[in-house]
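Reviewer 2 asked us to include a model.

Predict the structure of this chain.
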Amino acid sequence: MAEADAPSASRFARLIEPGSSLAPFRYVVFREIWVANLVSNLGSMIQSVAAQWLMTDLTHSHRLIAMVSTSSTIGIMLFGVFAGAIADNFDRRRVMLAAQMGMLVASALLAALTYAGLITPYLLLAFTLAVGIGTALNSPAWQASVRQQVAIADLPQAISLNSISFNLARCVGPALGGLLISLWNVSLAFAINAVSFIAMIFVLLRWHPVHSPPPRRAMLPTIAAGIRYCAGAPDIRRILLRGFVMGVGLAGYQALVPAVVRGQLHGTEVQFGLLLGLFGIGSILSALIIGEMRRRFGNEAVITVSALAFVAAQTVLAAAHSLTAALPASFIAGGGWVAGLTTINVIMQLKSPDEIIGRCMSIYQAVTFGGMAMGAWLWGTVADWGGLSVALHAASAWLLVTVVILRFVAPMPEIQPGQRARASS
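Predicted model (structure tokens):
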């Protein structure tokens, strides 16, 4: 048996050797956090589907339906910068623990109130906002902690693998969420999300990274220093501008899909889940090849193609009147989503100095998710005024015009292998 297992072990060793796409899996802590994140992301996808579908039951307003997406992201815009300062001033593991526990409590309360029949549109928005605030607190600490989990040479691959974890959950979670809603009701989906946080909490309680405690600084001056650095670094300014503009455009698809399925396609919750599941499949396939595409064609070309993919997806979705016609749009949108946002995220992480990476990443997330929140509200309002098709075409026009202009006005910086940013003295 040992002889039979030897070739398999050898192949696995080659898969995770330094420089390979799976190299970060050599590190035990990265593997454990990755798996726990997959479970948590799966729960989050199930809750996201449930919240969006529940809102279509509670109201016919396209704006309120789109506001579910806004409430999920606006917390990152409002509190993300403070979360970055917290990540740079406190033990990141403890920050992540606090965020995970807070999201568990919020999801459990949402499940209980929904089961009791006490949920209203604005209560639903309030609870999705609470979970979004937990995400805002967790994300900078989690992204900054990746450097404590793997060597710097494996950082781009680790970021891509984390994106794959999210998109694996995006494949299975929506379809599973739609099935759960059809078999029981949305309260079960919310309860499953609450339970999913337990895996990450368990892993974080076991992880004790060896590092020097960060020096404590006053919060507001710490935030101001991060903003000054980002404002004064030309490359960072361009990254932030591109993240915001892309966030506004991508929000059209994410915010309006529930209304399209319910109103335009006359679909069910299971079909809604399947549509989002195909989005996840496109995301995973894109994540598997995006690193090679960046190396071969450059960051600017990848972001341009991702924007054009979303233009095509939203144009197809606007004209679709059946689930079959909408499925290709969902697949294309998933690929474009990961190609664009992962590329911008990788560049931001590698351009951010170690000593202020938490603040830099929080500012990036605040700007990008702020763009998504603004876009969701904007395209939802346009849909109430002119219809879903008009809103989707408007979001496509935004992406098409801005990607052409910004290619010349704010070109994306290229990253050399092994390059790391350093803060100016």
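The mean pLDDT is 84. DSSP finds 14 helices and no strands in the chain. We have added this to the supplementary material.
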